[in-house]
Design brief:
It is a single chain. 77% of the residues lie in helices and 0% in strands. The protein is mainly alpha-helical. The radius of gyration is 26 Å and the shape is elongated.
């Protein structure tokens, strides 16, 4: 009789645990459905160009599900935060945009999921861009870059993360030059070239030659740099490169004729992408 009683007790416990698990699974599914509905609502508002309302919906999504451990929901939350940052940036609110990126790093920075890490790097990469181009903050951008390289680039979890790491190194060159760390900038240029990324274009190499010439005119001449530019098979696309920080902190300190030459090269990559205009600029 005791054995039968023990059997029934174990059976009841098993049934109870199954009910608990089933109820918990239903709750998780309901949360996922609710989160997905809010995320899609935000997307629809963006399509309707109702950006303030979309941000409000993404905020609601974050408030309700921001601490939810489900991978699907975590991915939705970080995606919604990236959408929010893009909308804020489009309004010119750079500080608010960076504040979102900081929250992403604080909440998801230690996540070892590849998909999450790639989104964190997307946020931090754009933060570096804004610190360089919008805020003209070489010291701040180098601090962000240092964290990226330390936390994600020692052993990259995916090829995309490796690409992000090399591009982060590439983006460090201008702020390194801006704060006078010339030797480190030259070392970084060589490291980026050695990486031989599939996404690395001829134009990128020409820009690296320009930055190398700024760092050390003994390693490359203006004529060699000009020859590299006119030999490009594809004309650089306008808007791909900007040199605000380099103009303010490096070119402004140069003496003539290097100052004028550097301005000509920067204008070529930034503005007109015309080798004839570049030649006239360099020879005037």
């Amino acid at each position: 009789m005791q054995n039968m009683t023990s059997f029934f007790r174990r059976s009841l416990v098993g049934i109870f645990l199954m009910l608990v698990f089933f109820t918990y699974s239903l709750q998780l599914h309901a949360q996922s459905v609710d989160a997905q509905a809010l995320f899609m609502q935000g997307q629809e508002l963006i399509a309707q160009e109702k950006y303030a309302e979309a941000i409000a919906v993404f905020d609601t999504l974050d408030q309700r599900f921001g601490n939810n451990p489900q991978p699907e929901i975590r991915n939705m939350i970080i995606s919604s935060m990236l959408w929010k940052s893009a909308l804020l940036k489009s309004t010119g609110d750079i500080r608010a945009t960076i504040a979102v990126y900081d929250r992403i790093e604080k909440r998801y920075g230690k996540d070892k999921t590849i998909e999450i890490q790639e989104k964190v790097l997307e946020a931090l990469g754009d933060k570096v861009y804004l610190q360089i181009e919008a805020l003209d903050d070489p010291a701040g951008s180098l601090k962000t870059i240092e964290r990226i390289l330390k936390n994600y680039c020692v052993e990259p979890l995916s090829q995309d993360i490796r690409f992000s790491c090399v591009h982060t190194q590439q983006n460090s060159i201008e702020p390194l030059l801006a704060v006078g760390k010339t030797a480190q900038a030259i070392k970084t240029i060589k490291s980026v070239r050695a990486a031989e990324l599939e996404t690395f274009a001829e134009t990128d190499d020409a820009v690296l030659s320009f930055l190398l010439w700024l760092a050390d005119p003994g390693q490359i001449t203006p004529q060699t740099l000009f020859d590299a530019i006119i030999s490009l098979e594809e004309t650089p696309e306008a808007g791909n490169w900007t040199f605000n920080m380099t103009r303010n902190h490096v070119i402004a300190r140069l003496s003539e004729p290097r100052k004028t030459q550097a301005t000509c090269f920067a204008d070529y990559f930034e503005k007109y992408q015309d080798s004839d205009l570049l030649e006239r600029c360099l020879t005037r």
